[in-house]
Amino acid sequence: MEKIPTWMPVVAVRLVDDRGRWLMHRRPPGKHHAGLWEFPGGKVEGGETPAEALVREVREELDIKIESMNLVPDTFAQEAVSEGRPPIVILLYTCASWSGEPRPLEGGKLGWFLPADAALLDRPPLDVALMSGLLEKIAD
Questions:
Q1: Within 13 Å of residue 25, how many CA atoms lie on the same side as its CB?
Q2: What is the CATH number of the domain that holds 110?
Q3: How much is the pTM?
Q4: Which of 8, 64, 112, 132 has the highest CB neighbour number within 10 Å of its CB?
């Protein structure tokens, strides 16, 4: 019987405001990758689609409401396979419409950055890959 690969699905969102800025989240002290900037999001739970997970995650993390119909799949990044745990695959969506004012409910800090400035932030490895994919698309 063929072995089916396992992976950990994670979703993230690039919120884009009317000035073309992107929302980035700085991870709080005590968390993995503390102090680094990332696109907000989190793990896909059992029984959820990626869009459903992202709607839930931004409500829990940012206290805003997004609609799945406003999520546009954008790019993805994946870890190399490592021993002991499944690799993480982050699916990044873009959203330019939401209700409420984002605020960091789980700690950390939020900031709005123009793409070139967001690219200069210290980020976890998978967010570096996501940013590279986004900047390539913009350059095309």
A1: 27
A2: 3.90.79.10
A3: 0.91
A4: 64
Residue 33 gets the label, from left (phi > 0), alpha (psi -120 to 50) or beta, of left
Q: In sequence order, what DSSP letters do the residues of 61-113 get, joined into one string?
A: HH--B--GGG-EEEEEEEPPPBTTBPPEEEEEEEE---BS----TTSSEEEEE
Characterize the bridge pairing of strands 22-26 and 37-38.
antiparallel
| Residue numbers of the domain that contains 73 | 8-139
By the 10 Å C-beta count (0-12 exposed, 13-18 middle, 19+ buried), 48 is classed as: middle
Q: Is 26 helix (H, G, I), strand (E, B) or coil?
A: strand
The number of folded domains in the chain is 1
**What letter does residue 31 receive in the DSSP assignment?**
S
* Chain segment 6-61, per-residue pLDDT in tens: 899 999 999 999 999 999 999 998 888 889 999 999 999 999 999 999 999 999 99
